[in-house]
């Protein structure tokens, strides 16, 4: 992180990227790559293209670790760098983000942090404290400065704000969690309300939470690759300055905000051309993401890996693999979804471009982590929906089950809880639930047909007994046998070749 000190070049600073003094409107719990490349980047554009006129104060949400020294060295500036395919062309853009005006350590300087509760201009709280951050910790204490958990910090902060402004309705805050859990706003509100009761903060405060504050649930989608290690010095040379907080990401982005109240006037992100959707129901968008984006990964990656590829980009450059993925989406997944077809087609097209991003080296084996539970969540609803709608098996999704089984087939359990398998005589290692790994280790000598029957009937893996789907066991078993006899590439060429 200190290599820049040996390079004769000025580091990024406020003089290079001046910005007017703006009131702090956003308090952000989290200073990591994602929030900087997503929320702070969007706020910066909103300042440029609308009358938002607000800045962000970052709060370190945990006691360990910090980027704050680096922020201070750069005068609270950093470079956001979206790069990838736009309209089929490789694009690399750079924007110096000036929306951050402060970085606060709530542990080392609690008084400074607490002052933001009394700031009239504050309107929004954003957080990304990981999935484990939105959890009720009943051992947390109001007396701590700050409380241990993120819900604890938020509850105390909101109480101190309510007290400071005598419970004024217009001083409530809009809460925008982006943690990757379902109904993140609902879950966070439940935690806050529970702590308010546990800490006996009073009915007046509980009522203020309900009437003055808005807890939104959000869905976010952007691959943020963060600091470009190994490329940084070359990028500095192109930029003409040093930036140890370079933050790379894909150009694609989506922020779906479910709110009972229209927020578009206060946070005018869609009006600035930003990929933000305000809605009273995010679930169709969640379903779209899970079934199309995540479902595409889960359905084609096991086969692609067994065809000899290691990263998504290389697999997508194979016309056979790319066609398999696209036909899965367009012919079998999209017909089962509820959003307008044009929206679904556009999203699927964007997914194809994202998978072909030349700047992202996404390892296929990392996508294969916990493949069985992923297939259940991401692909099974599409398969069952297709069968219900057409009365037929979807050929590509059905084959994806066989390719998943062949990925695990013949593996042996290791001492560290993984499954060791072979590809062309070389070992690879799979991680999954212990029951899944044990199943494949124990059934590796069974016939493909018998193994398929046992696998698909396992309700612990899938919930419903998939053997009840007409023809599914027979089709999966037959494809699995073909893969074992002929090899993945040969079988895919015979079934789906272009």
Could you characterize the architecture of this molecule?
Helices cover 44% and strands 15% of the residues. 44% of the residues are buried. The chain is globular. It has two domains: 3-280, NAD(P)-binding Rossmann-like Domain (Rossmann fold, 3-Layer(aba) Sandwich), CATH 3.40.50.720; 284-496, N-(1-d-carboxylethyl)-l-norvaline Dehydrogenase, domain 2. It is α/β, with parallel strands linked by helices. The protein has helices spanning 33-49, 68-73, 110-115, 150-164, 184-198, 203-212, 232-239, 283-306, 312-316, 319-333, 341-355, 364-367, 371-378, 380-390, 395-408, 434-442, 448-456, 459-462, 472-486, 488-496; strands spanning 24-29, 55-59, 78-86, 89-92, 95-97, 100-104, 124-127, 174-177, 214-215, 217-221, 224-226, 247-249, 254-258, 276-279, 412-413, 419-423, 426-430. Helix 4 links the parallel strand 7 (124-127) and strand 8. It is built from 20 helices and 17 strands. The strands form four sheets. The protein has a six-stranded parallel β-sheet with strand order 6-2-1-7-8-9. Strands 3, 4, 5, 11 and 12 form a five-stranded mixed β-sheet that branches. A three-stranded mixed β-sheet has the order 10-13-14.
